Amino acid sequence: MCSMASNKDDRTFVTALARGLAVLRCFDRPRIELTTAEIARRTGLSQPTVWRLCYTLIESGYLVRAPAGAGLRIGAPALTLGYAAARGLDAPALALPYMQRILDRTGGSTTLSVRQGSEMVAVEQLNGDFVVRDQPIGWRAPLDTVSAGLAVLAALPATARETAIAAIDNPDAARRERHLARVDTAVRDFARDGTVRLGQILDGRYTAVAVPLFEKDTEPKQQWALTCGALTSSWTSKDLDRAAEVLIETRALLVPAFAALAE
């Protein structure tokens, strides 16, 4: 479903505009042509509302009627905006404004990391109310020890996940079993609510929630993840839920863009 941003308490928030943008977000590479009925299902909006929004977008050029059939496609102005946004950007540059938004909304430190072999490598980081010592940009950690790595593992197809786990150097049998159990939990959590949470970092002092920045059950060449975390003593369960909610919203925006950058 194409999520629609909303803030009922913000009087400057324009709901109609948000709905129109939600319609545009429904179009991606697997779904380049959609009917208004399909858009209504994906946005959760009523059919009459979707038709009025689509009519306005058609008249403005942001949607066009497909050459054959009853479908709609993205129009030239929307494609121009996408090209302007992506041209010259790499993944960290694309993610950074969204990372700042996560920090502003949660207060938690936010990290963008990418998988390299059996490790996750941090490539961009914004610190919240605390700084984790000895973890500057470029820090590395095995996939099964950090929430970002667990999020990547959880999103991979089962065979790719098994291959990735087998490549992790973990000679201690007891520790390996604990980490396999941690991966299993991450897979279940991600299937349930789209996030992976980990509260046993740095002797339990640090809690984090992460999301993969690629579609579930795919194996892109670059496997990115976004993490938000804070000191366990400063975050309540409500704070953690809020961070998870913000990450899910951000993931919905970034996954298609990251896929486009990889082409």
Overall shape: it is: globular
Structural class: alpha+beta
Number of helices: 9
The CATH topology of the largest domain, please? Answer: Beta-Lactamase
CATH top level class name of the largest domain = Alpha Beta
Number of strands: 8
Any idea what the radius of gyration is?
Answer: 20 Å
Helix amount: 40-55%
In which order are the strands of the major sheet placed?
Answer: 5-4-3-8-7-6
Distance between the termini: 24 Å
**Average pLDDT, to the nearest integer?**
86
> What percent strand?
15-25%
Order of helices and strands: HHHEEHHEEEHHHEEEH
Low-confidence stretches: none
The domain count comes to: 2
What is the H level of CATH, i.e. the homologous superfamily of the largest domain? GAF domain
Summarize the main sheet. 6 strands, antiparallel
Which architecture of the largest domain per CATH?
A: 2-Layer Sandwich
Secondary structure elements and pairings:
Blueprint: H1 15-25, H2 36-43, H3 47-60, E1 63-65, E2 72-74, H4 76-86, H5 91-106, E3 109-116, E4 119-126, E5 140-142, H6 147-155, H7 158-166, H8 173-193, E6 196-201, E7 206-212, E8 224-231, H9 237-261
Antiparallel strand pairs: 1-2, 3-4, 3-8, 4-5, 6-7, 7-8
Helix pairs in contact: 1-3, 2-3, 5-9, 6-8
